[in-house]
Amino acid sequence: MSERVLEVDDLQTVFYTRAGLVKAVDGVSFSLARGETLAIVGESGCGKSVTALSLMRLVADPPGRIVGGSVRLAGRDLVKLDEATMRKIRGNRIAMIFQEPMTSLNPVMTIGRQISEALILHQDMSRNAALERTIRMLDVVGIPEPEQRTKEFPHQLSGGMRQRAMIAMALACNPEVLIADEPTSALDVTIQAQILEVIAKLRREFGTAVILITHDLGIVAETAERVIVMYAGRKVEEGSVERVFADPQHPYTRGLINSIPRLGLIRNRAEESSRRLQEIPGMVPALSNLPPGCTFAPRCTLASEICRREVPPFEQKIPGVFAACWHAGRVAVVANG
Amino acid sequence: MANHDHALELEKAGANISGRLSSLAFLARRYPLGAIGGVIMVVFLLTALCAGLTGLDPFTTDARSSLARPGGEHLLGADFMGRDVLARIVFGARISLAVAVGATVLGCFFGVVIGLTSGFFGGWFDLLVQRLIDIMQSLPLLVMALVMAASLGPSLQNTIIAIAIPLVPSVARVIRSNALSLREMPYVEAARAVGMSEMRIAVTHVLPNTLAPLIVLGTAQLGSAILVESALSFLGLGVPEPHPSWGRMLSESAAEYVRSAPWLVIFPGVAISAVVFGTNLLGDAIRDVLDPRQRQ
Q1: Predicted-assembly ipTM surpassing the 0.90 threshold
Q2: What is the Cα–Cα distance from B183 to B142, expressed in whole angstroms?
Q3: Partner-chain contact B208 A121, CB within 8 Å
């Protein structure tokens, strides 16, 4: 593999709440190569977004705090940096786009000025030079008439255009890492594909490594090379997208894949019932009160005595796929049988 | 299906508007009361700014025309010392304008600084300031201004300060509550993700978003500042002689001449009422225009 731009090791982020200690991110590790796309998937509340915010050091303290681990960007540990140094890195070398394109842009500021801000802040550009680069970036992300758009306000742009503008803003300083937190969840399906294409194009063009956070496995299959499945703040499975999708080693991943609706004609009643969507029973447990063993055990059909007692180790199950499950070998058998 | 006259409906909805002037005309048609307020304010502004060009003299006393009736040489009559009432009202507009604008701008400036710091940064500063504001707001604007004016002494400058200080809490409150909700906005988080400092976010992202309520509040305060100035001058605590102040014109004449020379009371009274009325109408219209939720 080529050079690693980001190495996350045993990251631990907790929240101190009235309900008690919430381990939102519990020992997550991964690394990211230049130009690679890594997807992080999981249900709501599994710690995907907090992981993203932790990488940016944007977890509000209080109540949240990064209590352990390291986030190395080109060898430098971001967790140990002071706030002023971190500000110089944010938006400059590691950038983030958010879920809500409708509200992530300031309504009273022109698009041009908002994108220029980052450039003026980090690259010491003059207003004119920044505006010129802004126009070029808007062109790159596929916004027509970029020069005209810089003078417009967010409400004059559609949701898809705003998300493009957000991407232009995030990539204006040419960061090594782009974190996209559910970048297409609030958009129409047709627009989703366009936005993902823009991200993919920029990755090829600038060699930006992308961390794509999503709950949509379809998007993962289309855009990412590697995938991490998170459950209750922990990594439960990791591997190349093809391998994980073809032969998931964790029952939770299997459940996620089974709950994707598939299009197709239903010919008769018997087939209809057999093709009903399979959901995962139960809900993500409260992070403040996790079961002692495997956190997925209460919802797992394979769960046995050991699952409820001991946390399964995260290890390689088949070549290229790592998972934390005591019964990895039985996942495929049970699901298919 | 009935016929729809699209062109007419579009015209009513305000389509095909180009240029500032025609959009102003459109707004005037939609908010007729606001337009009336706007006209009153324009007349008031022009009067104040062009007072020197009218050739009127508010200072010269003339024993012969003491308490002259309206009409003839003195269009709106003359006061006890023979000074022309029209001239004094015209020049009084200057004082009212200076006090209203001066106090409002000063009050809004400090109100914004305090409100923004308090709402966006929070912490102990917020707690302390809010309790101080609670105390200040428990007293009416006029009473606060009275205390301030009495302790500062009468002068134009002190009147402005005396009226500005009590304005600060109400502005700070509005800005604070706005900043409190604005700081949770995703674009503030996005600005953080771009690497902006908190200070910079407060000034470039939060402050511009509080301008709409600030303008509405400012216009409303303009009227009450004029009213308080008149009240202070009426009580002898405001702008001192010989400057013509509408409030002082009332107080000089009210007790003694209200029966024998009612024009001395009526005309300054009308001037005060008209201008305050105008600011309120204009303020309401601006609020409606700026707040999309109130739009129909």
Answers
A1: no
A2: 34
A3: no
